[in-house]
Design goal:
This protein has helices at 12-17, 20-26, 44-57, 67-83, 89-105, 119-143, 148-165, 169-184, 207-224, and strands spanning 5-9, 37-41. By secondary structure, the protein is mostly helical. A two-stranded parallel ribbon has the order 1-2. Helix 3 runs antiparallel to helix 4. The longest helix has 25 residues, at 119-143. This is DNA, SC001. It is found in: Nucleus.
Length: 225
Amino acid sequence: MSNGVSVRVLAVQQALETEFSLVEASGNPSSVGSCVARVWLPPKNEATWLLKRYAEDVTYLHHILHLPSVRQQMEDLYKQLSLGLRIEPCHVALILSIFASTAYTLTPLTGGDAVFTNEQTAVKCAFLWSKMALDVLEHSSRSTPGSIEDIQATIILSFVIFNFEGFTMRFRALSASALTMARDLSLHRLDARPDRLPGPHAPLDSDIGREIKRRVWWHMVSTDW
């Protein structure tokens, strides 16, 4: 367990063949009242394949990620897991949301490197990963001040939830949550004059970081319109 998130690394087929996915899908009674978010991640080779498919087939739906940065975050996450180091819940939530979105939107699979054996397996993984990502986001909201990764994960998950459930209360709650977090991080004032920004010392972002924040904010604005 690291930073309140308990992570197991299991191959997709191995996870689906064990009771782990069934317990997580129905809710683990032993975790009621605890502050632990329990998730499983695929091994690095499967994770790399999923991120590659996301970059090729999904990212155009919402241009809110800088993929080289996400690849580096994923590399760091798996390295931290292998060394037993502290991990950030927001990074886990973002990676899980990417995996869920990829699994749900995959076209008919070809090639020997496919992670999923059939469409039903992909949809089941999408459901499990989206549920786990929601759990991690809830934990992150209680234990961290919020981050751009939390917002990105929430936006991506809202698309997955919309496809699973439609225009439901959960989808609307996710959309509202992303907007609230964005305002808390002052994304709506990103390009305001420095002397008008809240606080005596506004944090300095890289050019890439500022551009991604702009894209996240204007994505939410445009979809709300």
